[in-house]
Every structure is written in structure tokens, then in C-alpha cells.
Amino acid sequence: MKDSRTFTPRRAYRYDYEEVESEAAAKVFAYLNASIADGTLATGAAFGTYEVALADNFEYTDPIDGSVSKNQGLRIVLKDGSRIIFRLSGTGSAGATIRLYVEKYVVTGYDASTSDAIKDLIALALEASKLFEFTGRKEPTVIT
Fold it and tell me: What sections of the protein cross the membrane (predicted)?
């Protein structure tokens, strides 16, 4: 699969949930962290019809000075190369923003819209995070 991704269309979406109560946003991330820690989202775990290849709290290493920025978001990488990333920002008094990034390599159905191509991953991401249960948000504020 790795070589086929060079020529396979990639579909991606970002869902922003803005002005989420900070406490509710923290619960989403605590739940996801716990799911990674307890093995629910561990390597090899079933994730809908997918298999988890990696789940972690990713960090960025600057290639110039070698500095490391930890806790950059929660990442779920699936065996087919698809990725789901949750990032949290702006946890001040006006609330937080939860950003959900979803990326999928589309092997069949090239003519499908992006929303149709990745709706299964969006549903899995929302289910895995319990975002609706913790925040009460049925829809994102912004979709890009």
C-alpha cells in the first residue's frame, strides 16, 4: 500500500469546533488519552472496519535546532495510511477550539465527493472521541 499512495488521491477535511467550554474540551482529550493508554486505540486494535497502526500524542522536532514541542495533538494512524488528528487550542476564558483533521487515501470511488469519501472516518473519529457526548456539539462550526 505504501507505494500505491504516491498515485492515489488523498482526501482531507478539517472540522473546527469553536468556543467549546474548556472543561468539555478537556474531557474529550482526557477520554482520547485514556483510550490510547488502555489499549482501546492501541496498535492492532480494530477501529470500525480499519486497524490502528499507531495512536499517540505526537510531538514535533525542529530540524534546525532540534528543539521538541510536545503535546501537539492526538494522532490515530490507520493501517491503510488514513489519519485522524485531534488538536486543542485557545483554552482561555472564551472557550477552546477542537480541531479534527481527517485524511484518507481513496483507492476506489475516485469520483466520490470528499465528504462521501471520508464520512466513515469522520463518524469513527466522533464516536471514538465522544465529542457529542462531552460537548453537546452535533456539528462543527467550520468545515474546510
Answer: none
